[in-house]
Amino acid sequence: MKNDIFYSFRRCPYAIRARWALLICGIKVEIREIDLKNKPLDFLNNSKTKTVPILIKKNSEVIEESLEIILWALSESKKENIKIIYFPENKKEDIFEIINENDNKFKYHLDRFKYATRYQNRDEEFHFTNAIKFIKRWNELLSENKYFFGDKPTIADWSIWPFVRQFRIACESQKRTNYFESPIKNWLDSFEKNAEFKSLMYKYDLWEPLSKKNFFPCN
């Protein structure tokens, strides 16, 4: 295999955070954009979880978790001191704690707020109220620093902003207001208005086995 292969779905926040890490770390991969309602056989044969993202390394090893892809990208990057900058040793415990909070608590309420009709016991307002508790807590952190742990982002910021973005989109679709205070709004803006955002969210054609290869980043 000549290239590392990355299976993605453009709007998935897990895929977004993995792509962001690849982008910032300067890692080029063959990208395969898939339809989650019609998953290709090659993807299904390589994925135990059947969810994106997955990365198939040149040696055929498969990485299935977005956070593991982020850590792999840091380890593979040729950029000087990138691991020290974005994953400082003295903040590891705090970084993993806040990512775990996002992935296992905030995401639970976010899904049930954004996709209320998918769940039998739907109580949209309950899940909005609980999701906003995390937003307020993170806003307090960001009122002290530009990013969660200082004036530079860490992989905690990389891992969480796509989910906060999804929360904002859900609020907008329901015409809710006053869901963000300035610190967390400015923090999210720092990613969405970043010069790399356009490349991050580039719309690739859906992959098929005989498709020509596409690469991420595309420039």
Would you write up a description of this structure?
β1, α1 (13-25) and β2 form a beta-alpha-beta unit. The chain has two domains: 5-83 and 202-216, Glutaredoxin; 87-192, Up-down Bundle (Glutathione S-transferase Yfyf (Class Pi), Chain A, domain 2), CATH 1.20.1050.10. The chain is of the alpha+beta class and 219 residues long. It has helices spanning 13-25, 41-46, 66-76, 82-86, 92-114, 124-142, 155-173, 182-192, 197-200, and strands at 5-8, 29-33, 54-56, 62-63, 214-216. It has nine helices and five strands, in the order βαβαββαααααααβ. The mean pLDDT is 95. It has a five-stranded mixed beta sheet.
Short description:
This protein is α+β, with helices and mostly antiparallel strands and 219 residues long. The protein has helices at 13-25, 41-46, 66-76, 82-86, 92-114, 124-142, 155-173, 182-192, 197-200, and strands spanning 5-8, 29-33, 54-56, 62-63, 214-216.
Features:
single chain, 219 residues, alpha+beta, Glutaredoxin, Glutathione S-transferase Yfyf (Class Pi), Chain A, domain 2, 5-stranded mixed sheet, 8% strand, globular
